[in-house]
Design brief:
Elements (H helix, E strand, L loop, with lengths): L2 H11 L3 E10 L2 E9 L6 H18 L7 E5 L10 H6 L4 E10 L2 E11 L3 E6 L2 E6 L3 E6 L20
Parallel strand pairs: 2-3
Antiparallel strand pairs: 1-2, 4-5, 4-8, 5-6, 6-7
């Protein structure tokens, strides 16, 4: 059963974006994790409301026979990037990407995500630009610069005196 196809319309009808869905075993239990977001972030009321709606939809569709736990949350400030859509939505933000084999002499790359297309991404690092195909990515996430004024997704705000 395609969980994204089940919960996607429910999430969108609530004015939220479906960031990611993961279903698997963890410590002997089955867990369905649904990550939602929206411009400006999500609060606890939004999470509680959409959690109830997702639960009802999954019950109506007969999702996953047997017990499982549903966890609905925000992807957080330092969010995992798993799909080309995630990378495209994160262009301009600071990221850390690990690769399966060295690219330009390293397996770990950190810098500003400058570009993301259907084939891969480009990170502007302190050492220069690095092009990484998606199939080489083993893990990727945004990196919050904790000392800098930031928006929900870690983008620095430009201050104006106007």
């Amino acid at each position: 059963m395609d969980v994204e196809a089940l919960v996607g319309p429910v999430v969108e009808s609530a004015g939220l974006d479906l960031w990611d869905v993961r279903f698997g075993r963890e410590s002997g239990r089955r867990v369905l994790r649904v990550f939602v977001d929206r411009e400006g972030g999500v609060d606890l009321d939004a999470i509680a409301g959409i959690s109830e709606k997702i639960s009802r939809r999954l019950d109506l569709e007969g999702f996953a026979p047997g017990p499982y736990e549903l966890e609905v949350s925000s992807p957080g400030l330092e969010r995992q990037l798993r799909t080309p859509r995630h990378f495209r939505a994160t262009v301009g933000e600071r990221v850390r990407v690990r690769t399966s084999a060295p690219i330009d002499g390293a397996r770990s790359h950190e810098g500003v995500l400058a570009e993301a297309d259907d084939a891969g991404l480009r990170i502007d690092t302190a050492e220069g630009a690095v092009r990484i195909p998606y199939e080489a990515v083993t893990s990727a996430r945004t990196v919050m610069e904790w000392g800098a004024p930031a928006t929900r997704a870690g983008k620095q705000r430009k201050r104006s005196n106007a």
